[in-house]
């Protein structure tokens, strides 16, 4: 939850109370969000209520304003990659031009397999040590942490192999081998991870140009990048990305090439900004792979920093906008967290238990009778957003006879399209032209997060104008 004092003059007392609360209970986590809010994280509802009470009465001793529970979401696109390089080539291209017109950025995006995404998400600390993103010291060499690197590399390959094996019945053996070759090339082109340089999103280096073509022939140079993450993970050796000898280049071409090399960090920074705040509700992206082609042109009479600031800043902003636009063009979806719920309930309250689970959008996995007792054990997945007050409601409907244990399980993608528009004949017959389509669960979650963050929300202020009355009618 986000906490702030009722009187802004008590902010110092609140900060001191939070420090004392953290000393008294080390399990409490206190962070400051990007919006400046003090966020208090606890182990559960009961723990959180106790922490807020202690903060009001014992530590800060001031009146507090406590927000509703904050729930994190993720953003992704629909579909999973089978042959990554071919799937990227078939994706919609998002093209954005910098303010001065010197750089054209083209972005493609696809969704990574779920096993690979979950592996990258769980291995953030290890990736930080290997790549050196979160270490205060210099990155470790591959000789120092070779065992960890080798283990992580093998787990990444196994995650893709298991995903291909699960689809072997749908595709032929020849296509399976072709997909394996494509994934090997894919792992050798990883430029960076994000957000935070260790997240579950991947930035690939641009594909090599076709044989016989030169980028400089039309007055532009491609920002090639370097597979730095692949080198650190051991998927490829250190490569020299110098494609042309300086002796064969003219002075203008050499300057343009050096300027393109200096923009590589701007492309990576734009990718990091885009993956940390998606287009739906400014939540981090999850399980996406981007290919960014930034073509720098020399056909400009003015220097790059004359219009709209420096060229590096323009490229960073343009890459961010292009990545967000690419996600919107490829059927975006919202991702929410799920708890694994283990319920114990008597036979007579089994129906009431299922009613509570249905109201919470839970998905029941199995139901079995416990041996030697009259209790049923029900396993289900409950969305994190629907878990607040779940225990109290369950005890109220079952007269205290049922108990539940909630443990975070995984991230799951909601299949509903937040921007659903009727297209087929059946949908048009049911919803009409789309003006009366009710908001689905995905759109409600997105609007709630956008409203909490102060972002624009598209909603009808007046539902039925003919039924509104603004003054009393007196006869």
Automatic annotation (TrEMBL):
Species whose genome carries this gene: Genlisea aurea
SUPFAM superfamilies on file: EF-G C-terminal domain-like (SSF54980), Ribosomal protein S5 domain 2-like (SSF54211)
Cross-referenced PANTHER family: ELONGATION FACTOR-LIKE GTPASE 1, TRANSLATION ELONGATION FACTOR-RELATED
Every Elongation factor EFG domain range: 333-422
One Pfam family hit: EFG_C
Protein name: Elongation factor-like 1
Keyword Transmembrane helix: no
Domain of life: Eukaryota
GO biological process: cytosolic ribosome assembly
Assigned keywords, A-Z: GTP-binding, Hydrolase, Nucleotide-binding, Ribosome biogenesis
GO MF entries: GTP binding; GTPase activity; ribosome binding
GO cellular component, one term: ribonucleoprotein complex
Annotated SMART domains: EFG_C (SM00838)
């Amino acid at each position: 939850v986000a906490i702030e004092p009722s009187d802004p003059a008590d902010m110092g007392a609140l900060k001191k109370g939070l420090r004392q609360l953290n000393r008294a209970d080390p399990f409490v986590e206190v962070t400051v969000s990007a919006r400046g809010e003090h966020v208090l994280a606890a182990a559960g509802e009961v723990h959180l209520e106790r922490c807020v009470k202690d903060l009001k009465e014992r530590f800060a001793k001031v009146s507090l304003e406590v927000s509703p529970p904050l729930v994190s979401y993720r953003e992704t696109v629909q579909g999973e990659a089978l042959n990554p390089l071919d799937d990227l080539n078939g994706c919609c291209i998002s093209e954005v031009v910098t303010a001065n017109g010197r750089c054209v950025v083209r972005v493609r995006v696809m969704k990574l397999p779920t096993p690979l995404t979950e592996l990258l998400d769980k291995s953030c600390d290890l990736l930080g040590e290997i790549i050196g993103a979160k270490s205060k010291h210099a990155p470790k060499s591959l000789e120092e942490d070779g065992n960890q690197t080798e283990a992580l590399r093998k787990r990444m390959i196994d995650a893709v192999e298991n995903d291909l094996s699960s689809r072997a019945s749908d595709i032929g053996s020849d296509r399976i081998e072709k997909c394996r070759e494509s994934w090997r090339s894919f792992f050798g082109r990883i430029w960076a991870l994000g957000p935070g340089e260790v997240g579950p999103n991947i930035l690939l280096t641009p594909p090599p140009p076709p044989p016989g073509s030169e980028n400089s022939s039309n007055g532009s140079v491609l920002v090639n990048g370097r597979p730095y993450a692949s080198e650190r993970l051991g998927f490829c050796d250190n490569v020299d990305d110098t494609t042309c000898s300086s002796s064969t280049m003219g002075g203008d071409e050499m300057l343009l090439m050096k300027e393109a090399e200096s923009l590589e960090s701007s492309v990576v920074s734009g990718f990091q900004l885009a993956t940390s705040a998606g287009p739906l509700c400014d939540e981090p992206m999850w399980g996406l792979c981007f290919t960014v082609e930034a073509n720098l042109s020399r056909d400009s009479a003015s220097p790059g920093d004359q219009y709209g600031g420096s060229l590096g800043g323009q490229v960073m902003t343009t890459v961010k906008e292009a990545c967000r636009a690419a996600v919107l063009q490829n059927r975006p979806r919202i991702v929410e967290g799920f708890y694994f719920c283990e319920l114990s309930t008597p036979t007579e309250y089994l129906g009431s238990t299922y009613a509570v689970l249905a109201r919470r959008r839970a998905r029941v996995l199995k139901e079995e009778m416990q041996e030697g007792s009259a209790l049923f054990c029900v396993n289900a997945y409950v969305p994190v957003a629907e878990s607040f007050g779940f225990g109290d409601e369950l005890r109220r409907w079952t007269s205290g006879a049922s108990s539940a244990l909630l443990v975070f399980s995984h991230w799951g993608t909601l299949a509903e399209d937040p921007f659903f528009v009727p297209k087929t004949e059946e949908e048009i017959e049911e919803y009409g032209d789309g003006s009366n389509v009710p908001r689905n669960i995905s759109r409600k979650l997105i609007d709630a997060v956008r409203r909490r963050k102060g972002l624009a929300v598209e909603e009808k202020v007046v539902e039925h104008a003919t039924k509104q009355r603004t003054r009393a009618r007196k006869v």
